[in-house]
Amino acid sequence: MTLVAIGINHKTASVALREKVAFGPDILDEALKSLASASKTNEAVIVSTCNRTELYTNNVDAEQAIHWLSEFHNLDEAELRSCIYLHQGEKAVQHLLRVSAGLDSLVLGEPQILGQIKKSYSDAKAVGTVSHTIDRLFQHTFKVAKQIRTDTDIGASAVSVAFAAVNLARHIFEDLGSAKVLLIGAGETIELVARHLGEQGATDLIVANRTLSRAEGMADEFGAKAITLAQIPDHLPTADIVISSTAAPLPILGKGMVATALKKRRQQAMLLVDIAVPRDIEAEVGELENAYLYTVDDLQGIVQKNMANRLEAAEQAEAIASAQAHDFVEWLRGLDSVDTIRQFRSQSEAVKKEALVAALNKLQQGSDAEAVLTELANKLTNKLIHAPTQSLSKAARAGDLESLEILRRALGINDN
Question: What pLDDT, on a 0 to 100 scale, did the predictor assign at position 1?
Answer without folding.
Answer: 54
